[in-house]
Design goal:
By secondary structure, this protein is an alpha/beta fold. 51% of the residues lie in helices and 13% in strands. It has 14 helices and ten strands. Strand 2, helix 2 and strand 3 form a beta-alpha-beta unit. The radius of gyration is 19 Å and the shape is globular. The chain starts with 21 loop residues before the first helix and ends with a helix. The N terminus and C terminus are likely disordered.
């Protein structure tokens, strides 16, 4: 059930939007939002974004577009300085669902672009990835604290979007791996996002090795703020939000200050996006064949996990 803004606690924020509904306001501003679900918890001023890719648990162009629309909508509605104390959202939290958090980038989309030599489409995918990361890292320009919780295995470039948040936690059964180097590829935003958290050396080692890390090992390397027991990730975020409300202004200011101190993220990511697009278009036939085999392996793996015929997974991915 959608929550009315009349139920938003004061907590130092005097909203004048009692007659509005947060979800409807965002949807009206953002438009069509495929592959995501949004929910609002008024007691902790938190908007939850659940990623729900339709065909494969990957970051599709449609998913990236929806995430960006939500970020822009929140800022357009409540990002003006005189709206701060009226804004009903103080925390923007991302979560996943299903047996995987993500399998990473959308290989089927990449292959389609390569078959067509479609630089523009690849560049748009990179642009949306970059925009989402910049919004998350800045906390929507200091308006909110961004958080993410990882409940299962996270692979490749799909790690970067949640890691670009101010706070990222994982449940103890989660794991993290960047296998892209093994098929002559690299994730668009990983170098910048991981280096800011883990340091350049640790980030380089993880990206070049392609080795899978447990949640505890990823945290030890600097990749997480916390590892929590199975099934408790969302409650950890709820407690963090409740405890942080009285000091929200200070926390957003500190996150903004550290984000700025780390350098111009947008400029760095735009450079990486150009490198990534060029790298993709330079893949030789052998590397492209390897990508095709990985995409087919994903189909077979998903067929086993979801207990559906492999032909369904294959036809779904080819019909995007």
């Amino acid at each position: 059930m959608l929550q009315s803004l009349s139920s938003v606690p004061k907590a130092g924020f005097a909203t004048t939007l009692d007659s509005c509904d947060v979800i409807d306001a965002i949807r009206h501003q953002a438009g069509f939002l495929p592959e995501v679900q949004i929910d609002y918890e008024p007691d902790i001023l938190t908007l939850w974004v659940t990623i729900r890719p339709e065909l494969k648990p990957v970051f599709t162009l449609q998913l990236l577009d929806s995430l960006g629309k939500i970020q822009r909508a929140i800022f357009a509605l409540w990002g003006a300085p005189d709206q701060y104390h009226r804004a009903p959202i103080r925390f923007l939290a991302f979560r996943g669902t299903g047996p995987f958090f993500t399998l990473g980038g959308d290989l089927d989309f990449y292959l389609d672009c390569l078959a067509k030599n479609d630089r523009a489409a690849l560049a748009e995918y990179a642009r949306l990835s970059i925009e989402g990361a910049v919004w998350n890292a800045s906390g929507l320009n200091g308006l909110v604290v961004t958080l993410s919780t990882i409940h299962a295995k996270a692979i490749g470039g799909g790690i970067d979007a949640p890691r670009s948040c101010n706070i990222m936690i994982a449940e103890e059964q989660a794991s993290f791996v960047y296998p892209e180097i093994k098929f002559n590829h690299f994730p668009i935003t990983a170098v910048a996002i991981l280096s800011r958290r883990m340091g350049p050396r640790a980030a380089e080692q993880m990206l070049l090795s392609g080795e899978e890390l447990s949640a505890h090992d990823f945290m030890a390397a600097g990749g997480l703020e916390a590892v929590v027991p199975t099934g408790t990730g969302e409650n950890w975020i709820r407690k963090y939000a409740a405890d942080s409300l009285p000091m929200h202004a200070a926390k957003t200011a500190l996150f903004s200050a550290f984000n700025r101190r780390a350098g111009d993220l947008r400029e760095e990511l735009e450079h990486l996006g150009e490198i990534w697009t060029n790298c993709m278009l330079r893949l030789n036939p052998s590397a492209i064949s390897k990508l095709q085999r990985i995409a087919q392996t994903q189909d077979r793996m998903l067929a086993r996990v979801y207990q559906r015929p492999p032909a369904v997974a294959a036809s779904a991915s080819s019909g995007r």
